């Protein structure tokens, strides 16, 4: 959430940011309309309060003189009742203004490329040699089904489309990837491992920006008495661990990593990636979350992105890093790097991680502050997060990049300790 005073006093900057994002400015217009109505009403309330004070003074004076004050008492009561009603309307307008403010996206950082969609994203760097095959490479779903480690048909019978059952070496590979990622981030990169709840309340979803804008993408409990929702990413519960807290400056930066299953309805992806592991309703992910001081957050973004890249390097998976343009950057983000891994059968790179700096956008929504030593007051922290990595997509990339002509798959060296084997073969 943006600072309400900043939005009010810098409408030109907000309009410019919305236009760069390719969004209509009517969401700002609606907010400003409600804000203006609230300010007009507040002015009337303040005038009525002044009148009530004058009447109270006059009533006191008349009573002191022993003069009948009935008429003024009646007028004073009418004014008080009027103020009470207007104050309630004022509160409702303030709530409406906040709800509209929650729909205004973050302002992209000045270094973010300007563009309309993902075709305008800027490649920053690429790493690794793409594998060369003496045969036609297969898609990961064909490889997995032929090896008997992926079962989409039975998963569909149990839960429907966009689910998978991992079997035997497939289940072991998934577990190996999770352990490998968590070990690297905790032992080498200084993150504290968290295993959070998979169900969160609406306040948590609002704090990180999933609500109210992306409600249709979330899975909800049918018994909504508690208003709980399944998490789309560990970013939500982990960031909200410090909701409504004031952190000590000495404790920053804070680094957390978490493995969780993630649940997404994929409401806007009808017809996209209907086969394979790329776009599932349920998938595993290892997440990286940081809380930092404002002046450190962009250096921390580079470091976080590097932490995610290290996973791909150690797995020897070719990838590239993109700086997302203004038209492709996420709602809450001020700047985002996407890591895209190479998929030989598709002949293209596919996203495997997004690493974002939200600046104080999430912290303002979730009220996460810190206090500097020797200074009065508090400041909002900056929050960052990134996938380190999406496990299913990493699984798929390994199948495609390390496939062999006989249908087997070579296990990357970094995973062999966890897998207990050098190759997956058909049983």
Task: Name the descriptors.
single chain; 427 residues; alpha+beta; three-stranded mixed β-sheet; 13 helices
SSE ordering: HHHHEHEHEHEEHEHEEEHEEEHEEEHEHE
**Uncertain spans:** none
**What is the straight-line distance between the termini?**
53 Å
Number of strands: 17
Looking at the chains present, what oligomeric state does this protein adopt?
A: single chain
What do the pLDDT scores average to?
A: 95
Q: What's the alpha carbon Rg, rounded to whole Å?
A: 27 Å
The count of helical stretches stands at 13
In which order are the strands of the major sheet placed? 1-10-11-12-15-9-8-4
Portion in beta strands: 15-25%
Overall shape: it is elongated
List the helices and strands and how they pair.
Blueprint: H1 4-9, H2 11-20, H3 26-65, H4 70-101, E1 122-127, H5 140-147, E2 150-151, H6 152-158, E3 165-166, H7 169-188, E4 192-194, E5 199-200, H8 202-208, E6 229-230, H9 235-239, E7 246-248, E8 254-263, E9 282-292, H10 297-314, E10 319-323, E11 335-343, E12 348-357, H11 361-366, E13 369-371, E14 379-380, E15 382-390, H12 391-401, E16 409-410, H13 413-419, E17 423-424
Parallel strand pairs: 4-8, 7-13
Antiparallel strand pairs: 1-10, 2-3, 5-6, 8-9, 9-15, 10-11, 11-12, 12-15, 13-14, 16-17
Helix pairs in contact: 3-4, 5-12, 7-12, 7-13
